[in-house]
Amino acid sequence: MNNQTTCQCTAETLAMASVPMQEWCEPFDLATAIYNGTLFPCLNMNFFDAEDIPCPFCDKPALTKAAEQEKALIEICKIGFALNDLTLYLDTHPDCQNGINLMKDLLQQRLDALAEFAKNHYPLTQLSIVTGTPETKQYGWDEGPLPWDPFASCAAAK
Q1: Could you read off the pLDDT of 20-70 as tens digits, one per residue?
Q2: Phi, then psi, of 142 in degrees rounded to 5
Q3: Full-model pTM
Q4: Can you say whether the dihedral through the CA atoms of 128, 132, 135, 141 is positive or negative?
Q5: Distances (CA, A) of 80 to 36, 49, 69, 86, 108
Q6: Per-residue pLDDT tens for 2-33?
Q7: First vs last Cα of the chain: how many Å apart?
Q8: Would you list the DSSP string of 28-69?
Q9: What angle is formed at CA 112 by the lines to CA 106 and CA 113, rounded to 5 degrees?
Q10: Interhelix angle 97-120/65-92, nearest 10 degrees
Q11: Which residues contact 134 (CB under 8 A, 6 or more apart)?
Q12: Nearest-CA neighbor of 140 among 149, 153, 131, 152?
């Protein structure tokens, strides 16, 4: 067994990283956040300029029931993405009031969006079975497509 305490490598050290602690910055709007891959503009560091690619999360007129449904699902995804990114920030900044306030706001937006989607289409979560159709008298999880069959709702809407 080797009891060495220092590296005996002959290779050169190319770099040593130093990562500063993230500070609070005013977050992007949700469409911009999901397009850039981060909720926080201070973390959006472009390494090269690429051609502008049309954003798949921009609002487009809903022409069909399927398009309205897709638009609602994209909105839920944007909110969920922002919640996930914010959670990572709050893991390292648990007492940041700006982050906590935004988390509360986004959680309410997500609950509202899930309830609205359940009311108009079908429940996406167990909670939205009740919040989306409060007059329901039975557990109705089977009203929508199976979670692993995302295209079933498109066929049903046609």
Answers
A1: 888 899 999 998 898 888 999 988 876 655 554 555 555 544 346 677 888
A2: -85, 10
A3: 0.61
A4: negative
A5: 15, 27, 17, 10, 11
A6: 565 665 666 666 677 777 888 899 999 998 89
A7: 69
A8: PPHHHHHHHT-S-GGG---SS-------TTS-----SHHHHH
A9: 85
A10: 160
A11: none
A12: 131
Q: What is the 3-state secondary structure (H, E, C) of 91-128?
A: HHCCCCHHHHHHHHHHHHHHHHHHHHHHHHCCCCCHHH
Distances (CA, A) of 116 to 42, 48, 78, 97: 33, 40, 15, 28
What pLDDT shows up at residue 158?
42
- Token pair 């005013």 is found at 26
